[in-house]
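Progress against Task 2.4 (sequence-to-structure conversion) is shown through the following example record, which the project officer requested during the mid-term review.
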Amino acid sequence: MEAPESCYRCRKCGNRDVICRGTFDRTVHAPPIGMDRTQLFIKAPRLECKQCEQVLNAVLPNVVPFCQYTKSFARLSIDLRKMMTTLDVARYLGVSETMIRSIDKKYLQKNFGKPRLRELKIIAVDEIYVGHKKKFLTIVINWETGAIVFVGEGKGENALKRFWKRLRGSRAKIQAVATDMSSAYYAAVMKNLPQAKHVFDRFHIVKLMNEKLTELRRALYREAEGMGKAVLKGIRWLLLKHRDNLDDSKDERTRLMNALALNQPLLTAYYLKADLSQLWQQPDKAAAGRFLTSWCNHARESGIKVLMTMAKTLQGHRTGILNWYDFPISTGPLEGINNKIGALQRMAYGYRDIQYFTHKLYALHLAKFALIG
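Structure tokens generated for the chain above:
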């Protein structure tokens, strides 16, 4: 087919005063007709611009520049990628997976390559494990929308350097930040967002308490003899379970009570662990402060090393823990995103192109279908 008249203009300056200096052949992919693969064979002109005095290939209006497919083919590919794998789309359209991946990457880069930070008010920060090659990525989300606004390689303060630079340039007014109790995050937030409320994630605090309880059980198990050893064996998950979730049909409550009756330190730690959850159920911040002080006093008075260590940790992070009453936020949404990222990686059998993977993460909050790699 012949090229349309609209392409007879200089690709550099747009001037229509051009001279045709021969033609060249273009073969481009177009949307299929039914199940039949469609290709267009186009005779495109080479044009000499009288203004630029250069001979250049003409730009075809409905063909993506420097690519072997039409704009309608690219739109179809992007729509199919929302419901199908790269391999399925490539087979249906009769092209290579590389071409489909390239189309998808260009679309993501154009629409999600650089998330806007200007409107950010509340953010959450955490790291996720993405495999033995890249290991960790640090994720920052807009807590209000759930959208990922930054992906940094590695973890800790260094992974966030580019984010802080972009945030300063955007002049966003951050009101609150949710993180775990990592000293690296604490230092980074204090340095870059001194006016924002730093909220320590309640689920990480509960997780730390569970780890201390597990550590105590192991220590007691090593010291126990005979019957005491048998009672302590296999009750780790019973200690971590909420008391309302214990299954009486499996005698879980009886087994747990027997173990606690034989070990006073374990009994003390178990009930203090249960009481800790009430820290986020107080009527106001002042009451929560009094509760935290009382809890830490009981933990220290117990004389149990792991509880004393836990009390010291909570007191050292007191302000960030109580800031929850000003902004009741957590990194919980990041855990859900972590599950989606895992599904994304499994269905794609991993991503070799980290930039493509990053763009996929920026668009993750808009996924409407089952996640496809």
